[in-house]
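Q: Given only this backbone (270 positions), what sequence would you predict?
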């Protein structure tokens, strides 16, 4: 398993270098950044416990497993119907059901954070079970802070960006971050030292609502609201789009890192 996950991570890093992927919120760089910021926020006792779990796979740093939830299936294997959904779909009206990922009985991302936090906190469980829970918590907190992983619609709009046609979700998963940098260490240091205050606290559902509001105000301000049946003519984005939107992504990545660190401290501090 460790070798397979490591291989998947290497593949994902290579994919980032080649172009966008429409599937993984924040991509490898963003998720690594969130995990590095969070780990730097841990108390010594909580860090020791987490590193004890990570040691099961030979790691000491949380970023090493931050994208595991995106790559934990072998290529070609069917999706497990119980695999958590990596989003919580909050309509722009804010009127969302308790289970905010329609059409599935699997945990939505906000529910998954609550569920796996409780599993991680249960020291009577096997270390391997708690490690899996840790990996889900690290990843899902990051996912909830990507605006299009909290909103309904999800971002299927076709866009033309720098002479390539893709969907707006893919731009936010990747280019908005990776055009700034592909180095998670550097980005974590930059965000931690940038002096920009971010709102902390809240629940996983609150974070999804924040993402939905940001998508409404800063993504769908220039795009038609649509779901699977979106206009076939792509909306042309300016070549400066990723740079223009980067400050919003930076805010969300920093919030996710700080909130993840605070959540882990609260969960594992006796």
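A: Predicted residues:
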């Amino acid at each position: 398993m460790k070798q397979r996950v490591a291989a998947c991570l290497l593949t994902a890093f290579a994919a980032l270098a080649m172009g966008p992927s429409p599937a993984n919120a924040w991509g490898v760089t963003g998720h690594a950044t969130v995990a590095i910021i969070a780990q730097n926020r841990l108390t010594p006792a909580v860090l020791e416990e987490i590193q004890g779990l990570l040691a099961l796979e030979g790691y000491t740093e949380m970023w090493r497993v931050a994208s595991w939830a995106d790559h934990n299936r072998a290529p070609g294997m069917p999706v497990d119907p119980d695999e958590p959904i990596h989003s919580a779909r909050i309509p722009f009206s804010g009127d969302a059901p308790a289970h905010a990922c329609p059409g599935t009985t699997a945990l939505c991302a906000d529910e998954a954070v609550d569920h796996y936090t409780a599993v991680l906190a249960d020291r009577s469980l096997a270390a391997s079970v708690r490690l899996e829970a840790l990996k889900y918590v690290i990843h899902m907190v990051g996912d909830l802070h990507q605006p299009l992983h909290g909103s309904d619609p999800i971002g299927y709009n076709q866009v033309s960006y720098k002479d390539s046609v893709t969907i707006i979700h893919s731009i936010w998963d990747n280019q908005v971050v990776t055009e700034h940098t592909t180095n998670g260490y550097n980005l974590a240091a930059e965000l931690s030292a940038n002096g920009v205050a971010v709102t902390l606290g809240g629940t996983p559902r609150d974070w999804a609502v924040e993402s939905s509001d940001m998508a409404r105000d800063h993504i769908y301000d220039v795009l038609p609201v649509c779901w699977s049946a979106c206009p076939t003519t792509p909306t042309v984005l300016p070549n400066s789009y990723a740079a223009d939107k980067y400050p919003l992504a930076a805010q969300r990545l920093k919030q996710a890192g700080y909130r993840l660190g605070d959540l882990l401290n609260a969960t594992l501090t006796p």
